[in-house]
Structures are given as structure tokens and as C-alpha cells.
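Example for tutorial group B:
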């Protein structure tokens, strides 16, 4: 798909087809897109968890309060280590920036492959940490279900965005 079309077409999906799994080959392509993301000082302080087993999916789904996630056949979890991220002289740690870029690369790659996603930050962090056995020096940044759209309903809504003059200045 042409890049600008991918960017403009990508929307958050909240209705997944539970009967269509994503092949391992496509999940690997999504992971490769995340791995290709730039990071400060090229430290790559991330790890991408692709949850597909029914037992673990059930536990991970319990860490999010909305039930629309239940039909997604896979959940991607992006985590990272603050101690592995670059730190600017004033103390700014690049972990969130690095993980944001990697997550964005992966959801755009998913869109390009015809796979739907929905960036989620409103999960129960402590519960998810316990479910996944996350180490104390790691942080869970975001999750997204991955799957094929159940009915394409998210494509029927108009994607609302500010006019360019509200979003950008060319100075």
C-alpha cells in the first residue's frame, strides 16, 4: 500500500473476527517493523510480546475493562527497560518516545497487511505485570489487539482530524 494511504486509512478497530487468525509470517512482519524503528542512540530498549495462546489471551484480556477486546485472536504488548534507554543531560529518559515510535511502526505495518489494531493505554498495569511476570526494571507501555476486522464498521465512520492550519505551522 502507498504510505500516505496507510497513514490516512488506519483507524482504531473495536470489532474483530474471532475465526480469522493471523499467520505467524504476518506477525513476524509486524515485529520486524517494530524492530526497524529508530531509538535514541540506537539503544532499542524494547521487547514486543505477541500473545496468541488461548490461556494467556484470557488472562491478558482480564487486564482491560472493555469486552470488545475478547474476539481479537492476538494481543501485542510493548514493554521496555528504562535503564536501557538513552538519557539526556537534563535527565529526560527516551523510553516512552522509543516505544511510541516502535508501536506506531507496528500498527502501521499491521494496517498495510490488512490487520486491524487499537492502541490501548488504559489497561490495569499491575494486574498485567503479574500475569506476564514483568521484571521490576521493565515497564509495559501499550497494548493492541491484532486481528481482522469483523465487519469493517470502523471504516464507515468519518475520520475526524483538525484542519492542517490548526495542526501545523510552517514558519
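The residue assignment follows.
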Amino acid at each position: 500500500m502507498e504510505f500516505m494511504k496507510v497513514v490516512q486509512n488506519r483507524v482504531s478497530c473495536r470489532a474483530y473476527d474471532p475465526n480469522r487468525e493471523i499467520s505467524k509470517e504476518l506477525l513476524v512482519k509486524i515485529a520486524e517493523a517494530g524492530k526497524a524503528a529508530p531509538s535514541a542512540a540506537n539503544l532499542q530498549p524494547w521487547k514486543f510480546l505477541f500473545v496468541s495462546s488461548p490461556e494467556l489471551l484470557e488472562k491478558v484480556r482480564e487486564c482491560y475493562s472493555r469486552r470488545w477486546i475478547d474476539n481479537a485472536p492476538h494481543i501485542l504488548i510493548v514493554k521496555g527497560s528504562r535503564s536501557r534507554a538513552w538519557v539526556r543531560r537534563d535527565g529526560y529518559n527516551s523510553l516512552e518516545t522509543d516505544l511510541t515510535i516502535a508501536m506506531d511502526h507496528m500498527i502501521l505495518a499491521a494496517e498495510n497487511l490488512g490487520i486491524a489494531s487499537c492502541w490501548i493505554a488504559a489497561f490495569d498495569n499491575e494486574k498485567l505485570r503479574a500475569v506476564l511476570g514483568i521484571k521490576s526494571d521493565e515497564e509495559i507501555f501499550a497494548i493492541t489487539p491484532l486481528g481482522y476486522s469483523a465487519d469493517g464498521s470502523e471504516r464507515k465512520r468519518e475520520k475526524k482530524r483538525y484542519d492542517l492550519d490548526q495542526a501545523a505551522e510552517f514558519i
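Residues 95-112 form the longest helix (18 residues). Compare this with the pattern of hydrophobic and polar residues in the output above.
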